[in-house]
Amino acid sequence: MRHGNPQTFLIDADDTLWENNVYFERAIAEFISFLNHRERSPAEIREILNEVERECIVTHGYGLPSFTRSLVKTFERLSVEPITPALHETIHGFARTIAEQPVRVLPRVMETLEYLRERHYLILMTKGNFPEQSGKVERSGLKHFFRQVEIVPEKNTSTYENIVDHHRLAREQTWMVGNSPKSDINPALAAGLNAIFVPHDDTWVLEHEELAEAKPPGRLMVLSSFAELAKHF
What are the two backbone dihedrals, phi and then psi, of residue 77, each rounded to the nearest 5 degrees? Predict the structure, then answer.
């Protein structure tokens, strides 16, 4: 499906352009091992953590500060011992290991963006903590491929509608590209945009959702890798 006319691509960042959730998963595994709960299985602890994370997102949004609060709250909920300053420091250490990770760009992302930017209009669209996300954008070395960078607190249908209005985008020529059905694909389709789902093996469990069906004239594509965009556009 090659287009003669330039298209607009809204492109997700975490786990679409670079690795992200794999570092959170490692930190969570270390946290669960450290907790060493005698009655709850690791799977049960993870379910409790997921619920606590949902609660923290409502009040504190996304990002490492919210994740750290979730670990502390989960420890307080499950541990029989009080959380001492030393324990508090240990738990914060799990989150710090994530912040210390370099931005590891996914395979063939760089050359694919180079190809796309010569033919289309690219906007980086990521959600989360503004300083945290903007820092990753800068360190990634990818910022220059994009005409604009949008860092939003949440990706829902109204967010996409606001982006369309702000940039005066034509819906039929605009595509949201990402790995999250919940944040990238389904709300973009609901806003009347096209969407391209690029699955990632380590997509955050709170971003899992059944893919919606595209309602004409909207279109949904599923690709096995980001690099496949160059074959279609």
Answer: -75, -30
Report the candidate in 36, 40, 31, 103 with the shortest Cα–Cα distance to residue 68. Answer: 31
Q: DSSP letter string over 190-230?
A: HTT-EEEE---TT--GGG--PPPPPPTT--EEE-SSGGGHH
Which tokens go with 144?
Answer: 């220059």
Beta strands 8-11 and 148-152 are unpaired
* Cα 228 to Cα 58, 145, 179, 184, distances in angstroms: 35, 17, 14, 18
Determine if the peptide bond prior to 217 is cis (ω within 30°).
yes
Reply yes or no on whether the pLDDT at 4 is more than 80.
no
Report the pLDDT value the prediction gives residue 38, as an integer from 0 to 100: 85
pTM score, whole prediction? 0.94
Q: How many CA atoms lie within 13 A of 194 on its CB side?
A: 16
What pLDDT score was predicted for residue 1?
59
Side by side, the strands of the sheet bearing 194-197 are 148-152, 121-127, 8-11, 174-178, 194-197, 220-222
Q: What is the pLDDT of residues 169-200, one digit of tens each?
A: 999 999 999 999 999 999 999 999 999 999 99
